[in-house]
């Protein structure tokens, strides 16, 4: 992981192996030794492979993640895969895990909306792929060429047409959808008014500096014999490219900001605010961005004489996919092989992302979503783990169970923790049938699990809010040991929320403020002027994953959606933005100050429409794209911590 | 509903001493032994009458656990009154008073009125802190003091109102510039301008956040 960078690809076994393969069609089984990261199922045929296809995760040309692009044919479907090289394919200062987040794993080509080819006069060819969901992948740079073959191969397998408007735009499965064209055409890095440049990217630059630290001057360009040259060299093609990428991002950002603002002000009369007006005077014209220009779609011909309000139709197209019914048993089984392994994890995550789970399935699926069970475990393996973990749980539990009265008398920390937990479990969800009534045994189980957890993770201990997170888990698992281990898995990610120094919370609140700045500049300015930039009013949302904002059932549904980590690990932050944007006009219009805002946000509890908000959050996440991701520093919960030193700063115990 | 003044209160003290119950007893006149623990801050509001003037109390109830202090501290700003609560049956909650007081003094405005409440006085048989000790502590630190019970409602009304009366008196004495909202006071309609301060018409906030 500390591997500085790659100067010569020939020492990469993966790369070397691929060279022997060439890029012609061949059976996958002859594929190389190291296929650990991309295991193609039997019977799949590799129809295209190209090495040294890279993305630039940041605006810096020197930051590059290289990998291998493949097209795989299975049955009659074609899938696209791009996997970064293991270990040293990346010159970006990202961990292996972060690098892997960029992986494109077996995306059905039929899910692709368009492919745009870019062949700049200087520099390398690249393509931008936009999915039918509106999601655009980062540009893929073909450092070894091969764009033409890539498109040619696709053309052999799916219906591919060239756009009438733009010879470099290829449309997969003909579509008549003007908005998607809009999105696609957005990717075009040409004719960008200079004014949009630097001002729009300032956020990213500052964030990038933080994120990348010293990774800037690593001579990665040496692979192209540019080593040691000043980065601002006039004719550095890589630099030109990076500028184009930046420009593209700034346009996307601008689009995102304006589109989302417009959508929220025009299509979210949600009935909560009786003073809501349809044509809202508060719709901000972002300074320097006259609103007219936001309708990039304006220049797109409306081919389909669609129903009445074409603007609405157009905008609603990207506004998050409709939610689906929860995943039911029959369909769930279809995601498993005969022995119970999840065959296509990504498809499963996607399915759950869009609809959640039937309640009966939660018990089985939550453990997988949380990573307690591995997705490629079999039924039998899961049963086995369950029994092993049960006795492990009992062992840990016995550590405090066996503390005698005399011992406890001399063990203040234990007594205090136990006292705190006992006080809190009787104040957790007692209105839910599962926990109600006097001497409810489930309340005691809550206590036992939390106390056991505080021994399992003694450094973190117990903190208020944990019982809120555990309650639905115990309710779903209905088994003490299973609930404990699922809770452990959840706390692997959310533990920093409860750090004594609150650093996990602060980093999320910080990322949230950056996201609002990116997606709603004028709301950001409003918060800034009113001394609300600490975003403490979102504290409860983030600390316990919106547990107090929704009905119990809705909370469970939201959690499983968040836990898929589909689209983003940090969807919860986009959810915050989505809610704030819904009420932005009210907040600004009523000139809410810190107190009033906090009160207002608290009182939203029970009034938030989950499905609609999730759709908003999805759309915001897609619109924000890479710029959004760049707002969120690595290691921000629920991302795993960057280094695996001490997970938690030692907590001084407390009774306050 | 309109008011002559709005006072902002904050309730602080160790977790489990009964802060949320006191608030609920005051705002809803009921004791709900089973309710959810407080995450972050919660709100309550009620109108009272002092000197024939309608006064709105806006009360912030905070989470007591130490980890949240860095957050809850920011809510002290602009509070006119604080209820500092301990549990008479748990000695340690009394022992922590000094640290709470230090926090309040550091983060709240200097003229904030602080009421010390020894809660759960219905549990006299389990008493771990004597009334005299409570009185003594209050005296030493210049606080108003009462023992109360959120369960029986004993002294709950009195505690909130006595605090308000003290704030009201300070306004009359000209301690506050009531036009400056950082003192946790807003002037509503027809409020009596303090000798040093606001005019009737000075407030544009009248009824702004009434509920
Ligand atoms: N007997 C008795 N119990 C109380 C009283 N006030 C609160 N409680 C109990 O103390 C527990 C904690 O109260 P709560 O208001 O949640 O404490 P907070 O953490 O300070 O907000 C609850 O279970 C209440 O039932 C009281 O005056 N008398
Ligand atoms: Mg409370």
The stretches of 5 or more residues of chain B where confidence is low (pLDDT under 50) are 194-211
Estimated structural class of chain A: alpha+beta
Q: Helical region count of chain B?
A: 6
Largest interface: A-B, 37 and 31 residues
Q: Compute the CA-based radius of gyration of chain A.
A: 26 Å
Strand content of chain B: 15-25%
- From the alpha-carbon coordinates, what is the Rg of chain B to the nearest angstrom? 17 Å
* Category from helices, strands and their pairing of chain B: alpha/beta
Low-confidence stretches of chain A: 1-38, 175-252, 265-318, 644-656
Order of helices and strands of chain B: EHEEHEHHEHEHE
Mean pLDDT of chain A: 74
Report the count of strand segments of chain A: 10
Helix content class of chain A = 40-55%
Q: Percentage of helical residues of chain B?
A: 25-40%
Biggest beta-sheet profile of chain B: 7 strands, mixed
**Could you give the distance between the termini of chain B?**
7 Å
Fraction in beta strands of chain A? 5-15%
Q: Count every beta strand of chain B, where a strand is a DSSP E run of 2 or more residues.
A: 7
Function (chain B): Intracellular vesicle trafficking and protein transport.
Family (chain B): Belongs to the small GTPase superfamily. Rab family.
Membrane topology (chain B): Lipid-anchor
GO molecular function, one term (chain B): GTP binding
